[in-house]
Amino acid sequence: MWFAVDVTAAPEAREAVEYGLMEAGALGTEERGPSAGGFVAVAGYFDAEPGAGRVREALGEALRIYGLAPSDVRSLELREVEARDWLAEWKKGWRPVRVGRFVVAPPWSEVEEDAGAIVLRVEPGMAFGTGTHETTRLCLAAIEKHFVGGSLLDVGTGTGVLAIAAAKLAPRARVSACDTDPLAVEVATENARLNGVGGSIDFWTGSVGEATEPAEVVCANLTADVIIPLLPSLTAVARGRLILSGVLETQAEGVLLSLGGLGAEAREVTRDGEWVAITV
Ligand code: SAH
């Protein structure tokens, strides 16, 4: 038996709600169309009964990160769903995501490979970073553009998608990746193995700090409130390029100001929806 949490929210809060539901442990989310009074209905699917407190807390935190009001979430309801039907539907709905040469696809989907394609197999649902989020796509594009080999450090690796992309793009590169969440490190290590680059990425639990070895390219797809205090460490370990994402358009100015304060200069700002990536 699976469980769904149905949330009605203001339309501008749709993405925040999806993010909050995933943070609360949902394995997937789905927009269920407009509901009465101009609200949108979003469902999050869970393989165990989620605690209402945890869901509420995660939604509250998501609204805060997105700069929205608590009242943007109208209602929250739990229902039971038949596991098989939903899982089959959900898997059918998955499409590979193409970013430049990279194709991010779940392990079970068939991918038409052209000559230049680099296929990254990532099981969706576990940690963030299934290739479908705007910020992941922005980072993949920046890695393809700026990483020509040498060393790369992925801070906040999640599923490992960016580290795996770098290791496949430049097979002789030294790639390392960290995450403060030990579960993410476990998932990322397994994903690297599935992608045949298990031996070429050094994963560790933790974050970037004084003892971290410098790398030519450093990628950090975190949130603005996490990135800003980490900027002194991030700029210190990045020898060449620093790629920052997980930043909302409204937060970009704050990140750029902090960078300026450190004497670092943004070379490029790319956008996808309301998200930006900053290359330093
Ligand atoms: N790199 C992936 C996942 C990004 S999600 C992608 O681009 O899709 C951000 C990840 O950063 C999460 O897995 C979270 O656990 C981790 N994280 C949060 N704060 C962190 C910190 N201070 N240092 C390192 N990792 C952190």
Q: Could you explain how this protein is built, in words?
A:
It is built from eight helices and 14 strands. Helix 1 crosses helix 2, helix 4 packs parallel to helix 5 and helix 7 packs parallel to helix 8. The strands form three sheets. The protein has a seven-stranded mixed β-sheet with strand order 10-9-8-11-12-14-13, sandwiched between helices. With 280 residues, the chain is α/β, with parallel strands linked by helices. The longest helix is centred in the first third of the chain and has 14 residues. Bound molecules: S-adenosyl-L-homocysteine (SAH).
Total helices: the number is 8
Gross morphology is: globular
Overall pLDDT confidence: 90
User: What is the helix fraction of residues, given as a range?
Assistant: 25-40%
Task: Report the radius of gyration as a whole number of Å.
Answer: 19 Å
Distance between the termini: 47 Å
Stretches where pLDDT is under 50 for at least 5 consecutive residues are: none
**Structural class of the secondary structure composition?**
alpha/beta
Order of SSEs, N→C? EHEEHEHEEEHEHEHEEHEHEE
